Amino acid sequence: MWDLLKAKDVAGITLTDSLAMLPASAVSALVFAAPHSQYFAVGQLCKDQLLDYAARKSLTIEETERWLGPNLSYARS
Asked: What percent of the chain is modeled with pLDDT above 90?
């Protein structure tokens, strides 16, 4: 399947001996749709989650609130 995808040629993604993808940020999935499938939604973000995310991304609180506004569980200041 990996060869059919041509992942190395198209995206530069290779497999290790234990079949982990490199670079580590690469993501792969087999997705099957079915009428009885159930999906989940991401919940609203609390202020502490936003503060943590902003710090990890080196963003200001205001900038992070602007980008994630629809997902916040609190009123912006």
From this structure: 57
Q: What angle do CA 38, 70, 49 make, to 5 degrees?
A: 85
Q: Which two tokens stand for residue 69?
A: 């506004």
Beta bridge partners of 15: 21
pLDDT over 80 at 42, yes or no: no
Q: Is pTM, for the whole model, over 0.85?
A: no
Angstrom CA distances, 29 to 35, 55, 59, 67, stand at 19, 29, 30, 27
What tokens were used for 72? 């916040």
Distance from C-alpha of 15 to C-alpha of 76, rounded to nearest angstrom: 44
**Is residue 50 within 8 Å of 61, Cβ to Cβ?**
yes
